[in-house]
Amino acid sequence: METDCNPMELSSMSGFEENAELNGFEGTDMKDMRLEAEAVVNDVLFAVNNMFVSKTLRCADDVAYINVETREGNRYCLELTEAGLRVRPFSF
């Protein structure tokens, strides 16, 4: 099996968490979930009847809501977080 780096390289990175500010991660913000939600909509829109970022449920840096209508006519509200998507109570 091929790997991107050998075990010797990994041992030199053992202090990664403690020195995050030295590795270019100081002050890194979470993703803007509204932008992520728009990307999800653009990726999946071809496969559903309708899909859009909710205009009634408030999006934040850590959560966004997407309304979906399937080709079968079922409607769902999806919650998008860093953990992924999950079905929420209907919102449309």
Automatic annotation (TrEMBL):
Signal peptide: none
Pfam families the record matches: GSKIP_dom
GO biological process: regulation of canonical Wnt signaling pathway
Molecular function, one GO term: protein kinase A binding
Residue ranges annotated for the GSKIP domain, each copy included: 33-87
One GO cellular component, as annotated: cytoplasm
Lineage top rank: taxon: Eukaryota
Oligomeric form and interacting partners: Forms a complex composed of PRKAR2A or PRKAR2B, GSK3B and GSKIP through GSKIP interaction; facilitates PKA-induced phosphorylation of GSK3B leading to GSK3B inactivation; recruits DNM1L through GSK3B for PKA-mediated phosphorylation of DNM1L; promotes beta-catenin degradation through GSK3B-induced phosphorylation of beta-catenin; stabilizes beta-catenin and enhances Wnt-induced signaling through PKA-induced phosphorylation of beta-catenin. Interacts with GSK3B; induces GSK3B-mediated phosphorylation of GSKIP and inhibits GSK3B kinase activity.
Family note: Belongs to the GSKIP family.
PANTHER family in the record: GSK3B-INTERACTING PROTEIN
Protein name (record): GSK3B interacting protein
Naturally occurring in which organism (per UniProt): Rousettus aegyptiacus
